[in-house]
């Protein structure tokens, strides 16, 4: 059985084998993560120099997991492949992009990620995660162009490479790894001194990630994450929407007359584009935004944004279908996370328990600054039981309940 990117599958057995395949020489490791998405200590990085931890074992290009032996405070086991430091490849390409087979009992789930063509040296392939009283697998396929530094910054690991390897230690690190770890060749570029680390915004707060917008290797990632912990099973399917204004569509502060004209267009103009489950976008062509897949259950949906010089504003929204029933977005455990993969991660939480809203605008990502991207916590909800999505205007302002309606069942 094949998995699409963002898709998931059941793991009814207690023993799981994850096998990574690539024509290139790759190193494989696993990360044991708590519900906060972080390692507990240095032992939670499992690799060739520390091959076993709490039911998870790495042997060559295979990760074996005894799920019954994984401690209760570990929610996720992430399987990762990186370019072999001793090999000849500088980065993954379309031919060397790893695939993965997940075996549980006699069943195999196969995931072939989209080709890695942007200089990625590390890729997060799949994650095994707890769901109710069992486990499931999710196909991820997220690459890091800055190697282990980007991976480490996301999961709280400080990487110390062997002498001369030049492996950077992210400012956000919370764990010191005292033994050498697999380092891509060539070594990843250092994390900028101006990197933010991992920060969490307060209500109505803002943070700016420094960016060189002429760097075509920069990829800003925005994800909607939720655990559905306070929801009934089968009633926790959120959808990530990224409403966008391209750089060429940015305008001064609009008048009410101009806003009314935009409202009448109901999202038909370029200044009101959207990337979501029914329009997954494109990275190589305009709008240079793409949705990685539809999770369909608690977990994570991801929007990647290439070419920061082409973007104006991106509004990160969540939609909750009628089938989910009443309840606040906070009851889903929903939050937005924005990162540049180079040592800066901004977490955007929700604070209100407002119920009966189908839409939540969570974060505004402003690319109009010449020296960076500003993320703002803009928590705003639709009217009770209103299905119309928000409207994003050319000046970065937005209003709820004015956009088009599109029911997911129509797909």
Strand content: 35-45%
Q: Assign the structural class, choosing from mainly alpha, mainly beta, alpha/beta, alpha+beta, or little secondary structure.
A: mainly beta
Mean of residue pLDDT? Answer: 81
Quaternary: single chain
Helix content bin: under 10%
Summarize the main sheet. 7 strands, mixed
Describe what this molecule looks like in 3D.
The chain is mainly β and 411 residues long. The chain is 4% helix and 38% strand. It has 2 helices and 28 strands. It has a 7-stranded mixed beta sheet, with no helix packed on it. It has a 7-stranded mixed beta sheet with strand order 14-24-23-16-21-20-19, with no helix packed on it. It has a 6-stranded antiparallel beta sheet with strand order 2-13-12-9-4-5. The longest helix has 10 residues, at 256-265. The radius of gyration is 21 Å and the shape is globular. It starts with a strand and ends in a 12-residue tail after the last strand. Mean pLDDT is 81; it is low at 161-189 and 266-271.
Briefly say what this structure is.
The chain is built from 2 helices and 28 strands.
Quick tags:
411 residues; mainly beta
Topology:
Elements: E1 2-3, E2 8-11, E3 15-21, E4 26-33, E5 45-46, E6 52-53, E7 56-59, E8 62-66, E9 76-83, E10 99-104, E11 107-111, E12 122-131, E13 134-144, H1 148-155, E14 197-200, E15 206-210, E16 220-226, E17 238-246, H2 256-265, E18 273-275, E19 281-282, E20 289-291, E21 299-305, E22 311-320, E23 335-339, E24 344-349, E25 359-366, E26 372-381, E27 391-392, E28 398-399
Parallel strand pairs: 1-11, 14-24
Antiparallel strand pairs: 2-13, 3-8, 3-10, 4-5, 4-9, 6-7, 7-8, 9-12, 10-11, 12-13, 15-26, 16-21, 16-23, 17-18, 17-22, 19-20, 20-21, 22-25, 23-24, 25-26, 27-28
């Amino acid at each position: 059985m094949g998995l699409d990117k963002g898709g998931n599958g059941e793991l009814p057995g207690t023993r799981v084998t994850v096998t990574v395949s690539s024509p290139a020489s790759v190193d494989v490791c696993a990360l044991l993560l708590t519900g906060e998405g972080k390692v507990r200590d240095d032992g939670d990085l499992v690799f060739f120099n520390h091959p076993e931890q709490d039911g998870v074992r790495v042997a060559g290009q295979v990760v074996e997991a005894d799920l019954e032996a994984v401690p209760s405070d570990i929610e996720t086991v992430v399987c990762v492949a990186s370019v072999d430091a001793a090999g000849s490849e500088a980065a993954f390409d379309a031919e060397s992009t790893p695939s993965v087979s997940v075996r549980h009992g006699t069943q195999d789930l196969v995931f072939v990620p989209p080709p890695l063509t942007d200089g990625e040296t590390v890729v997060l392939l799949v994650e095994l995660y707890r769901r109710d009283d069992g486990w499931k697998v999710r196909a991820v396929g997220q690459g890091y162009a800055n190697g282990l530094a980007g991976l480490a910054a996301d999961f709280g690991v400080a990487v110390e490479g062997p002498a001369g390897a030049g492996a950077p230690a992210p400012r956000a690190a919370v764990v010191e790894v005292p033994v050498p770890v697999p380092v891509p060749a060539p070594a990843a570029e250092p994390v900028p001194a101006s990197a933010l680390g991992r920060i969490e915004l307060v209500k109505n707060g803002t943070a700016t990630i420094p960016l060189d917008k002429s760097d075509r290797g920069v990829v800003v990632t925005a994800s909607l994450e939720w655990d559905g912990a306070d929801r009934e099973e089968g009633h926790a399917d959120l959808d990530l929407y990224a409403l966008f204004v391209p750089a060429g569509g940015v305008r001064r502060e609009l008048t009410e007359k101009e806003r009314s004209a935009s409202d009448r267009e109901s999202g038909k103009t370029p200044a009101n584009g959207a990337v979501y489950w029914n329009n997954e976008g494109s990275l190589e062509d305009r709008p240079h935004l793409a949705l990685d897949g539809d999770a369909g259950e608690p977990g994570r949906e991801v929007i990647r944004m290439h070419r920061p010089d082409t973007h104006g504003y991106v509004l990160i929204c969540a939609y909750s279908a009628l089938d989910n029933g009443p309840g606040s977005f906070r009851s889903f455990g929903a939050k937005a996370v924005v990162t540049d993969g180079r040592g800066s991660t901004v977490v955007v939480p929700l604070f209100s328990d407002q119920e009966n809203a189908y839409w939540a605008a969570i974060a505004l990502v402003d690319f109009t600054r010449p020296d960076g991207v500003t993320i703002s916590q803009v928590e705003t909800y639709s009217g009770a039981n209103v299905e119309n999505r928000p409207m994003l205007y050319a000046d970065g302002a937005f209003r709820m309940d004015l956009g088009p309606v599109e029911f997911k069942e129509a797909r």
